[in-house]
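Example 9 (inverse folding). The structure is encoded as follows.
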């Protein structure tokens, strides 16, 4: 989030700069040539690199501005000025229009429909004054600033170049983080690219992009349908933000506010708000450090969740305290506290999350471990806890080494060192993805092979990895475990329209349970696999509304109603070092029905999916975890609106293998109940098989042009 607020700072500051620059505009006479020469001589003597290359026109820029900047070394001004130099803004153009311009003593005035132009930026105000002696600039009355897709409005802005203090009153604005770097470039653009602010105060072309997830538990593995493994919110994932504050104070190297609000919702009344009290953004070692001393997330002005004092940066967890349930790993109920990420080894980020296993402490016993000195495959027995059995810890180390992504993720479900071999799960990986279209970004197949309006994506992925006690989630046959693995995976992914294709080669050494025998074996495996998926429309309902509007209270995007036929084909050939081989081809296919717009108060949305899976195989794996299942089954998914924002979801598998003892039974059930809104969703999830319970909410990301009035 530090990048987020730094953008706010940079949006505000251009007005400060050109306000000081434009003091000479209020004069009805040109600057004297002698003053300009003296200014140039002064700058050369100072030899300050921040302005060595900056040129100016005597008709518009008075030399006193440059002298003042050099004299006071204003750090906020230099934050912008450095951009001027690095991006070669020698052709910077400045102009002011107003009904009246005058000078009284050493105070310059512009009144009536004041417009200050800075290249492609504009500052609007009813009145602007600049005191040359006190170095105080004031803009007031219908104050508006617009540059590219960045905009704010306020009633008053006051800033003193000498003391580096000031304030902005009743500020409201919008930030587009995708274009902010381009928008804040001070390069000249054609007049036609400067937008009319008045025409922008309405929302157009609103589109859903994706979401940023916040999880309050850490139960489900990443390859399960309900992924609640992330306990953070990356604010920069949200493209558009609106913000407002009664007053922002400007101090030396710092912005502060008693209270400031942010929302991702494009419409009023916002459904989701972040409220920060005693907020500050401070420059520390040339970087912005952001602290919110009292922060709440607010849902529809009805549910408010405090998250306390926060030192905010992009990858820190958004929630501090949480509660969860995990019977299979933590004996049931637990509480956790997230901590800030820390920089280690300069380029790496370490995140720790400790747990207190409440139910294990209450019971005084655990039944998740085998007896001491017994095989890992032995039956688990009930044992008395030791003190360190009551604590657990997740540790994650991320970084980059020579453009390779490094990740070390380790989970300790007990800190008792005697149980380390059973309580720990660790994954280490180096990975790299290469865009094969990087040098030809507009590449597309023609003549109907690939739709001309869809970009063909082509990636080559490399991954070197090692796992200890990796949990393999079986979609139908049940969960398995790999006790040790290390290997190399190479893959080519291709995506276009509603189709995708992957070709994968993987070579790995495994230590895992033998099939049909309760023992561990060590073998190498070579795998060559291909995957293909498609979604073919059978029927589509014409949508009356082509874009999201304020009527969409319950859903973040336009629902494409219709029936699609979805298909997947997986082929694989496996060769093991003991001479075993297995080959298989799996077909999955079935309809996906979606009806309703989710705009009415009840039963206005239904999604129902039935996917049948049939496999043909030859040979058998020596391992239990990767033996291809040829059981015939149906995957059932449904979700539907109950009332208002309440959405029910259910997922399961139906066994259709007549030779199986579970024939006709539903397996791998998962349930969820969500509060679904335009700007966010909040839900609870439960999986009976693993007895895992969790809570998750999503903040939705939108793209649009224009801006609604202040909320």
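The amino acid assigned to each position is listed next.
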């Amino acid at each position: 989030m530090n990048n987020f607020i730094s953008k706010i700072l940079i949006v505000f500051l251009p007005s400060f700069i050109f306000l000081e620059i434009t003091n000479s505009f209020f004069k009805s006479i040109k600057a004297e040539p002698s003053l300009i020469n003296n200014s140039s001589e002064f700058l050369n003597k100072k030899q300050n690199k921040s302005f060595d290359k900056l040129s100016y026109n005597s008709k518009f820029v008075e030399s006193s501005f440059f002298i003042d900047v050099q004299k006071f070394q204003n750090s906020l001004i230099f934050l912008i000025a450095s951009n001027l130099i690095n991006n070669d803004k020698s052709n910077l153009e400045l102009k002011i229009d107003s009904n009246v311009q005058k000078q009284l003593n050493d105070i310059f005035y512009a009144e009536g429909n004041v417009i200050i132009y800075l290249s492609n930026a504009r500052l609007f105000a009813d009145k602007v004054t600049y005191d040359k002696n006190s170095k105080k600039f004031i803009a007031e009355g219908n104050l508006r600033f617009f540059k590219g897709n960045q905009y704010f409005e306020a009633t008053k802005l006051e800033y003193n170049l000498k003391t580096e203090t000031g304030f902005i009153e009743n500020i409201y604005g919008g930030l587009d983080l995708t274009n902010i770097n381009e928008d804040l470039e001070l390069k000249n653009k054609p007049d036609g690219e400067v937008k009319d602010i008045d025409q922008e105060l309405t929302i157009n072309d609103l589109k859903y992009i994706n979401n940023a997830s916040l999880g309050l538990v850490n139960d489900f593995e990443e390859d399960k349908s309900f992924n609640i493994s992330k306990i953070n919110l990356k604010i920069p994932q949200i493209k558009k933000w609106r913000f407002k504050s009664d007053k922002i104070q400007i101090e030396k190297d710092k912005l502060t506010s008693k209270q400031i609000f942010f929302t991702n919702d494009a419409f009023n009344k916002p459904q989701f708000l972040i409220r920060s009290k005693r907020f500050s953004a401070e420059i520390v070692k040339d970087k912005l450090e952001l602290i919110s001393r009292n922060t709440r997330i607010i849902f529809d002005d009805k549910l408010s969740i405090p998250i306390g004092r926060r030192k905010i940066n992009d990858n820190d967890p958004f929630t501090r305290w949480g509660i969860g349930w995990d019977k299979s790993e933590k004996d049931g109920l637990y509480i956790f506290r997230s901590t800030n990420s820390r920089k280690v080894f300069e380029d790496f980020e370490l995140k720790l999350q400790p747990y207190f296993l409440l139910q294990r402490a209450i019971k005084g016993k655990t039944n998740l471990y085998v007896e001491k000195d017994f095989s890992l495959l032995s039956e688990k027995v009930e044992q008395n806890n030791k003190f360190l059995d009551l604590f657990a810890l997740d540790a994650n180390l991320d970084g980059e080494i020579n453009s390779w992504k490094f990740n070390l993720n380790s989970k300790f479900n007990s800190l008792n060192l005697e149980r380390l071999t059973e309580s720990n799960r660790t994954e280490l990986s180096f990975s790299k993805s290469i865009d094969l279209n990087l040098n030809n970004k507009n590449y597309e197949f023609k003549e109907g092979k690939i739709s001309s309006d869809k970009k063909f994506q082509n990636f080559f992925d490399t991954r070197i990895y090692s796992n200890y006690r990796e949990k393999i989630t079986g979609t139908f046959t049940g969960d398995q475990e790999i006790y040790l693995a290390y290997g190399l995976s190479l893959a080519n992914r291709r995506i276009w329209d509603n189709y995708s294709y992957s070709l994968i080669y993987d070579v790995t050494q495994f230590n895992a349970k033998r099939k049909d025998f309760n023992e561990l074996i060590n073998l190498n495996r070579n795998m060559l696999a291909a995957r293909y998926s498609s979604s073919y429309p059978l029927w589509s309902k014409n949508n009356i509304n082509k874009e999201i509007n304020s009527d969409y209270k319950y859903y973040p995007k336009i629902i494409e109603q219709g029936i699609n036929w979805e298909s997947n084909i997986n082929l694989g050939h496996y060769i093991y070092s003991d001479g075993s081989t297995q080959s298989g081809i799996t077909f999955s296919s079935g309809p996906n029905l979606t009806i309703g717009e989710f705009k009415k108060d009840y039963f206005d949305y239904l999604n129902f999916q039935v996917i049948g899976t049939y496999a043909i195989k030859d040979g058998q794996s020596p391992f239990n975890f990767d033996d291809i299942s040829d059981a015939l089954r149906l995957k059932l998914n449904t979700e539907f609106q109950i009332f208002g924002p309440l959405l029910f979801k259910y997922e399961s598998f139906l066994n259709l293998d007549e030779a199986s003892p579970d024939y006709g039974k539903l397996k791998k059930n998962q349930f969820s109940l969500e509060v679904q809104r335009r700007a966010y969703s909040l839900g609870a999830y439960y999986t009976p098989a693993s007895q895992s319970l969790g809570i998750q909410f999503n903040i939705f990301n939108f793209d649009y042009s224009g801006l609604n009035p202040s909320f």
